[in-house]
Amino acid sequence: MRTVIRKVSVILLGLMIVGVFVFWFGWVHAPTPEQVCQHKIQLVHETVGEDQTDGAEALVGQLEANCVIAANRKIQLRGKLVWAEYAKCVTAATTLADAERC
């Protein structure tokens, strides 16, 4: 009887470990702050017209200086689940306006 209980508990523990692994990589695993900021900078470059290059360079400079710090602060204040949802939304955005709506 004890061996049956032990086998069942080992199987359940293994299933729980697999479940946590799948949950982490499926839901919580998110792009890094650096990747999110780089995508935002890429969207700025794709969005601007020829007459807006000065403003775009100023925006890119501010993003490079503050984006990663702000992203790390967002992770600390709101948690990894909220960050994962936000980061996936931003990296999936095709325009800067879509990224800002996240």
From TrEMBL:
The chain crosses the membrane at residues 7-27. The keyword Membrane applies. Keywords: Membrane, Transmembrane, Transmembrane helix. It comes from the Bacteria. The keyword Transmembrane helix applies. This is Uncharacterized protein. The lineage of its organism: Bacteria, Pseudomonadati, Myxococcota, Polyangia, Nannocystales.
